[in-house]
Amino acid sequence: MASHPHPGPLPTRGRETPTSLFRLKLPTLACPGGAAKSPSPLWGGVRGGGAPSYANGLGKPLFRLPILIAATSLLPTSAFAHASDRGHVLLLPTGYYLLGGAVAVAASFLVLALLPPDLPARLWRGRLPLVEAGEGLRFAVSLLSFAGFAMLVAAGFFGSRDPLSNPLPLTIWTLLWAGLVLVQGVFGDVWRWLNPWYGPWRLAAGLLGPRAPMRLPARLGCWPAFVLFFAFAWFELVDPAPDDPARLATAAGLYWLASFVAMLAFGYRPWTRRGEFLTLFLAMVARFGIVERKGRRLSLCLPGAKLWGVAPLSASGIAFILLALSSVSFDGLAKTFFWLGRFGVNPLEFPGRTALMGIGTFGLGLTFVLLAGAYLLAVWLGQRAAGSSIEPGRAAGLLVWSIVPIALAYHVAHYLTALLVDGQYAVAALSDPFARGWDLFGTADMQVAAGVAAGAQSAWWLWNVEAGAIVLGHMLAVFVAHGLADRLHADAGRAALSQLPLTLLMIAYTVFGLWLLSTPAV
Amino acid sequence: MTDRKGFFDLSGQRLNRRTALKGLAAGAGLAAAPGFVRYAQAQSSEPIRIGFQAHRTGIGAAYGRWYERTTNAAVKAINAAGGINGRQVEIVVEDDGTDAARGAEVVAKLTNQHKCDIVYGTLFSNVVIASAPTAGELKVPYYVVSEGYHVASGKLNRWCLQPGITDVRAQVTAVAPWIAANAGKKVTMVFPDYAFGYDHRDYLPPALEKAGGQVVAKIAIPPTESSFTKYFPQIPAGTEAIYHVMVGPAVLTFVKELGDFYGSSGPKLFGFIDSLEAVDINSPGLEYLDGSHFWEGSPRYAQANDSEAEKAYRAAVGIDDNGAAVGDPKDVSTAAHMFGCWETLYVIKKAMEDASYKGPQDRAKLVEATEALTEFAEGPEHPQGKKVFNGKIHQVFGSQNISKLEGGKLNVVHKTAIEDGMYEPEADYTTQPL
């Protein structure tokens, strides 16, 4: 049955702005892998007339949707704004959590500043060997994964029209995007095996020869992946119907095909590291997983340990990681009453995604620009405060790795409920992918327990898990930044000083993340 | 009441969500699905295809889930009893994302691409209003379960009908006499400052005055508001009852702050359960509601005097005595509204039988046959109670329940007469050409 402060002035393009500094000095290294009106008058209210304002003390709406709102207020209407589980969260003492989260992140910084500067590095070196495992099955697993993907795309076209019964949207949005990202972040690079391009590419390369006919220009960096990730985020967050099975099947099928062609043209390795955004993102996230593979040996390590020795990212790599965080942040922001109120949209009479495409596109871009600006400014200020002679671009390229655990934490916080409920729908749908009455896994008729995420009790523990993830993610980010700063600065005092602005940004982002989870939202 | 027609004889089979709804793989007839084999044996013709414009995603999803379950249960029961005109019923689900613009697309898709006979099931008013013109252009009967006054107002078109749920104007009008007689004659209204709230603001005062009461203050709350204490001093001291229709996530905060404001005293409260559909009435923060009264379309909690039809309906849909999903007590239903899906499907069945409906060529006859209906008797097809249908304004009228929250449950204390909710019709769709 659905606000961000008014955007401040964007950085000007002066010589002193971080933007210009990084534009001039960024290294061209490859990407990772190596990478309202006030309450109506008592008797007032407009019936069928002008659109009321919903900003309510939040300032004037930036824009209005006169046609839309006129259309929905011309006629009497019923409202089914579901009280929703956010209602229970609104009753929790979330203000204390915001304060506690900020204090916890600040305390992490202070504690780290007092401890030996090489502590993260020493902790990160520890390994607990597990087993030896070859990669012989990788090819076969990838082929199987491709077959599964092809079947899902077919189900998107020919299976049920209901997005909660068709396995394609449930697999892509819930199991893959909500679920696999977490698996990668907690454990490690599972996607390396599941990647549905690797097997087919090996087959094709066997036929066509191993040499790629074209070279991906180095100057492009990871920008192709950045553009594709932006398109993906737009599809997920702004497009009117990303859950529609046929629409998603078209998008996913075409993306697979285009990526496959690009892999044949430029080679598997270059394209999966600089062009195919999903593999690049999952590889970045996997660097925080606790399982490390070196040769045939699998070992356990601490979260973030695989960052030791990581190369600084290029400008495009920095942008890519920041986009990963800004897009998931916007996912939360776009649903808040605050954001909708900015644009004169009544959240209780939420018009649907189609009417908000312009606002959504603007917001997705805006959150990226604001985050990128804030991050680069924080790094630049830190380097300046520490009197460092290191190029700010190099520092930004290295420290940006500390953003990844925050992005992961936001991911947990924003997709946990979907994972719990839609995950059940996925298990049921996969058992009968074409709605033919099959029961492949014996789960086709399972009752989906939507109550798992409903009610005050669930709201309480979901809030605690989500808030805990946000705070822990930021504490880990401070830890990672501290460890990486030690590589940039010989002097421990300067290393700590250089981290101060970034830590302040992380504290602010902790509060922002907790606020997103606790403010009224659709 | 006996189940002579076998409405609820589901042969002991557990409701299978796939059989009725999941179905309709694109381009593939459901008759091929094993779940339909036993029905297919008894039929020789193609199934009747009902396009379900469902809020599967978006902000209406919680309602959509229960509208789906109710629809599924009704179709299962209809098919088990022989279908409609000897043909099985097949539901084709298309998600509209609770998105007004997509709503119109979905109506077109269900009609043109999926070759549905009719379109049915829409809840959210903005989707109904945006979809109605498309239904009119395509000349496809569009049966909504929306509760809005938009159908009866005459602002839509002849292809739009609401025969399974009463509209908000009738609901407000029906409860006013009870409020004046039992809760208090001096009433302060607290409502959200947009169209939904305006329906209440506009229809309650005249009905209350007619019953000897008076609205002494109307307090409109901005929709984005999340703290309400500052509005409470506007409630006049002489207020005997507060009529509240707040909706959205801040409802719990509203109730809690109202309780904090008044303590153990204060005016009596009367609300619409719309505020708390799908929410456990015993949630923390709602304590102040204890002893207050609510409008309910159909009671959430099982009542001591429930008819056999009501009991069977609840069992078929899968809700327990507390109105939550059987086996999942935290999944509270939207009981006050979702019965409308069940009853609408039975009206469609009756109208199709009266029109001897054979296919899309008979769509106009189907609309006329629906318009010709006048009464629906209480029973398995209409477990919520008897209904009166006005074919001119395409709107059904029925009893409303007034329930008292006591002992953690909502107990029905008064059932209004159908006449209590009737008003002077403002339209006549039958004059429009088909």
Could you please describe the fold and organization of this structure?
The complex is a heterodimer of chains A (522) and B (434). Chain A has 522 residues and is mainly α. Chain A is built from 20 helices and 3 strands. In chain A, helix 6 (138-158) crosses helix 9 (198-208), helix 16 (357-385) packs across helix 17 and helix 16 (357-385) packs antiparallel against helix 20. Chain B is of the alpha/beta class and 434 residues long. Chain B contains 11 helices and 17 strands. In chain B, a hairpin with a 2-residue loop joins strand 11 and strand 12 (328-332). The longest helix of chain B is centred in the N-terminal third of the chain and has 20 residues, at 61-80.
How many domains comprise the coordinates of chain B?
A: 2
Radius of gyration of chain A: 24 Å
Bin the strand percentage of chain A.
Answer: under 5%
CATH architecture descriptor text of the largest domain in chain B: 3-Layer(aba) Sandwich
Low-confidence runs of at least 5 consecutive residues of chain B = 1-24, 26-43
Corresponding CATH superfamily of the largest domain in chain B: Response regulator
Largest sheet descriptor of chain B: 7 strands, mixed
| Average predicted local confidence, pLDDT of chain B | 90
Measured as a percent range, the helix fraction of chain A is 55-70%
Helix content of chain B: 25-40%
Number of helices of chain A: 20
Order of helix and strand elements from N to C terminus of chain B: HHEHEHEHEEHEHEEHEEHEEHHEEEEE
Shape of chain B: globular
Largest interface (CB < 8 Å)? A-B, 87 and 106 residues
Tell me the β content of chain B: 15-25%
This entry's quaternary arrangement is heterodimer
Low-confidence stretches of chain A: 1-81
In spatial order, strands of the major sheet of chain B run 7-6-8-9-10-16-17
- Which CATH C-level class of the largest domain in chain B is it? Alpha Beta
Number of helices of chain B: 11
